[in-house]
Amino acid sequence: MSRNGPVALVFHTLFVVFMVAPILVVCWVAFTPEGFLSIPLTHFSLRWFRALANYPEFVHAFGVSLWLGALSSCIALLFAVPAALALSRTRFRGRDALSALFLSPLMIPHVVLGIAFLRFFTSVGIGGTFVALVIAHVVVVFPFALRLTLASATGMDRSVEMAAISLGADGWTMFRRVTLPAILPGIVSGWMLAFIQSFDDLTMTVFLATPGTETLPVRMFLYIQDNIDPLVTSVSASVIAITMAVLILLDRVYGLDRVLTAKGGDAGR
């Protein structure tokens, strides 16, 4: 195996710095004692983290984003799993067109989707509701869940299923004990990617959110329109810290390699 040369190492280092530097700067600014955006050079302060207690809107918006992302990702997977199995195992007329239809939300700008959803939900009488937000997010995150689940389903060894059938397993038992464990890496990765997309969406959600259903990105966007203090950076730093804590806990308890690659799993167990 050939090792990376000095040029490749420099390129990779610069790429990592380019990706991580904005996150580090945001977290650094969150500890400023000043009342404006600045990098703390003399001492650090938790002033803006304590200030979050005076803005329960951010805590509520964070809860809405978590619930919305988890619910829309789970619903999207309920459609993505059978769709991926059907597309990977059958050949029929219009298969490519159907696949393109499923992935079409990726090709439509979110501004257009937001306006279209707003008009549609208003016309059917559910505009401004949480149900409308869930439906819109399911449509947007469905292609992400489908792509990764489809990749796992396409690369699955079908002979394992044939062996299960020959041993007398019915359809549900085969799916539960053979097919599902085999495509689990794609399902988990698809859920995580769909959740991130839902949690982070602003462009479309800003057209659909109401004061009672504001997500965290929408709440932050509305806040920075009227304020220039570092409160938003403390919110971002808190979300980053929570995410890192969850990943570390998951790695300690279960193992990220098992979550992402299903290492150590047994499809026939």
UniProtKB/TrEMBL annotation:
Compartment(s) of residence: Cell inner membrane; Cell membrane
Residues annotated as domain ABC transmembrane type-1: 62-250
Transmembrane residue ranges: 7-31, 58-85, 97-118, 124-146, 178-199, 231-250
Membrane topology, from the record: Multi-pass membrane protein
Entries under InterPro entries matching the protein: MetI-like, MetI-like_sf
Gene3D superfamilies with a match to the protein in the record: MetI-like
Keywords: Cell inner membrane, Cell membrane, Membrane, Transmembrane, Transmembrane helix, Transport
Family, similarity comment: Belongs to the binding-protein-dependent transport system permease family.
PANTHER family assigned: INNER MEMBRANE ABC TRANSPORTER PERMEASE PROTEIN YDCV
Protein known as: ABC transporter permease
Organism of origin: Bradyrhizobium aeschynomenes
